[in-house]
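Q: Hand in one record:
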Amino acid sequence: MSADFSLSPLIAATAHWLTRAYPADGGALQRGLAEAQARQAVTVAAWLCYPTELDAQLVALTGPGGSNRLDRIAGTDAAAPSGHGAGGGVGGFSEEAGDGDAWRTWVDEIVASWAACLLSHPHLAAAAARALARTHHGSAVPLAFHRLTRPTATDLDAAALMRHPDLLAPIAQLHRPRLLARLEADTAPAG
């Protein structure tokens, strides 16, 4: 099983959590741009957090832990409607099929925290994207995370809440030291 496939439910659910906790203001275009930025940030964070195929398979086997603590910290309502409408389930879960909030079990707190760091600090996002080149994931696919690392003014407007450092601080600070240590280890000179 490919590591990228193993992490797909985790990435989808964690990005969905971010877009619900820090929603875009505006229409479908703004929501789409915010979702793309969340997806890129979560993908980079997940690939850094689980850099090998074995890491990805282990988290897929054991489960990432869920969103309960994140919901409490961010003050989000777990019972709030998803806003996706018919068939808008996440990670293969359909809310119409009675799964309700089953997707929340696939949210990874560490990945959400790291993604919050990347969204709120462009220099960390650029360093993280560069660090991916030294992971299993970076060698497997061409990397382009422009909405995360070089957002346009339209991108920034669409994800104003999701990129606001003060709003993201409670989530970002949960696991920021571990992200910084990971990035430092990846950028340290060999030898």
Q: What stands out?
A: Residues 3-78+97-187 form one domain.
